[in-house]
């Protein structure tokens, strides 16, 4: 059926009847097709991407297409110009626990970095002053999985984020640390903490950070390496103050001592400094004075090392006590006749074999003559009389007590001989 349109007045006056031809079904304006294409493109550009480094990265959220029909528009947020980089890469394994973790950003500033282990505990770290990088303040634990979450913004404030996971290596070789501290023990004011390693330490700076000493009076404690870097001795500048509480913290389990070799212990030990007892031996005068907690010194007659086997000069520390000690000349380099004897009330003060001990022969010569093989001998019986001069001195002594020898014709004791570190100036320690 045809539709007839009424013509204009002019058309009617001319007697012309205009006919309207309907459009064929299915045709749309080209402008509508172009708009539909624009919507499709906007949807594609608004999706999140993946950072080239492997960490999942997302930019600020884009706008949603408006509801409705023809004429609706789409707004897409501009991606952040900031680019995050997380090292190690996502999924990395066997990562070294020290020096490998770092988060950085280009064309932006870091706003947040969170690194957590399997227990959810955060890893301490700090963002650099320029806001461009983050590193942990300490090493990570070995054999542990970690998650990194980082955020940054560009100059326009548009945010980007990255999430990364990795795991640290499990050491194939570990080594033990031994020390001379017994927890809850009381030591003398000359106590030096000695730590021994099974093999030479190559990464000494890392080990020094992993073994720390904390004193209740905030005394500064430093370490010095001996014996081919297999031993670390720690002490303050001067003798400890009586009553000081001392804690030693070992955090070596995740520290690389040498290439491929890690420590195996995280532990804490503590001790207390007891009364002050300083013994000074004058080898020439055949006397020693004992000064205890500031009281008037006690003078005791002794016998020191003979001219053939003189005693060491210097500051030494008692580090072993034995009620009866077997002494064998075959273990030393002394001059004269060989001997193998048991001596009572023995207090060892050098690794090379110097003792302060009871000497049954000292009773006849103490205060007048030096007859020993280098030790400081006190009058005593062969079996050791607890009421003798040696017995009373022994009972009143503790590990860490100071013994100073002077005026001997012998050599100076070396800082690594026993706990002889007090013989090294603090500036060289």
From TrEMBL:
Pathway: Cell wall biogenesis; peptidoglycan biosynthesis. Residues 1-23 are annotated as: Disordered. PROSITE patterns: LD_TPASE (PS52029). Residues 1-16 have a biased composition (Polar residues). The keyword Isomerase does not apply. It comes from the Bacteria. The active site is at residues 357, 375. The keyword Isomerase does not apply. Pfam families: Big_10, YkuD. Residues 277-406 form the L,D-TPase catalytic domain. Keywords: Acyltransferase, Cell shape, Cell wall biogenesis/degradation, Peptidoglycan synthesis, Transferase. Transmembrane segments: none annotated. This is Ig-like domain-containing protein.
């Amino acid at each position: 059926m045809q539709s007839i349109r009424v013509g204009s007045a002019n058309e009617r006056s001319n007697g012309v009847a205009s006919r309207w031809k309907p459009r064929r079904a299915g045709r749309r304006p080209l402008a509508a097709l172009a708009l539909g294409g624009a919507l499709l493109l906007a949807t594609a550009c608004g999706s999140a991407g993946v950072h080239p480094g492997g960490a999942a990265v997302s930019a600020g959220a884009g706008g949603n297409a408006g509801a409705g029909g023809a004429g609706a528009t789409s707004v897409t947020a501009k991606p952040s110009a900031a680019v995050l980089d997380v090292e190690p890469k996502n999924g990395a394994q066997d990562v070294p626990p020290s020096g490998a973790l770092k988060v950085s950003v280009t064309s932006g500033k870091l706003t947040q970095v969170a690194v957590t282990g399997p227990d959810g505990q955060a890893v301490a770290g700090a963002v650099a002053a320029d806001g461009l990088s983050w590193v942990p303040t300490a090493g990570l634990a070995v054999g542990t999985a970690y998650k990194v979450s980082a955020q940054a913004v560009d100059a326009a404030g548009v945010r980007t984020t990255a999430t990364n996971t990795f795991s640290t290596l499990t050491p194939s070789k570990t080594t033990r640390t031994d020390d001379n501290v017994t927890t809850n023990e009381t030591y003398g004011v000359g106590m030096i903490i000695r730590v021994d390693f099974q093999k030479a330490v190559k990464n000494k700076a890392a080990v020094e950070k992993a073994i720390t000493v904390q004193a209740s009076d905030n005394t500064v404690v430093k370490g010095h390496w001996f014996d081919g870097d297999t031993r670390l001795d720690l002490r303050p500048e001067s003798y400890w103050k009586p009553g000081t509480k001392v804690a030693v913290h070992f955090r070596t389990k995740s520290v690389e001592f040498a290439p491929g070799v890690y420590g195996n212990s995280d532990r804490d030990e503590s001790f207390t400094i007891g009364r002050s007892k300083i013994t000074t031996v004058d080898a020439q005068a055949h006397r020693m004075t004992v000064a205890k907690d500031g009281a008037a010194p006690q003078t005791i007659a002794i016998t020191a090392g003979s001219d053939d086997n003189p005693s060491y000069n210097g500051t030494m520390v008692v580090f072993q006590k034995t009620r009866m000690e077997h002494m064998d000349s075959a273990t030393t380099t002394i001059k004269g006749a060989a001997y193998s004897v048991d001596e009572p009330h023995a207090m060892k003060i050098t690794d090379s074999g110097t003792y302060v001990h009871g000497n049954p022969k000292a009773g006849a010569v103490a205060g007048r003559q030096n007859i020993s093989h280098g030790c400081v001998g006190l009058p005593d019986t062969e079996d050791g009389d607890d009421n003798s001069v040696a017995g009373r001195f022994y009972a009143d002594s503790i590990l860490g007590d100071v013994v100073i020898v002077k005026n001997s014709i012998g050599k100076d004791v070396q800082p690594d001989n026993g706990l002889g570190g007090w013989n090294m100036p603090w500036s060289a320690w």
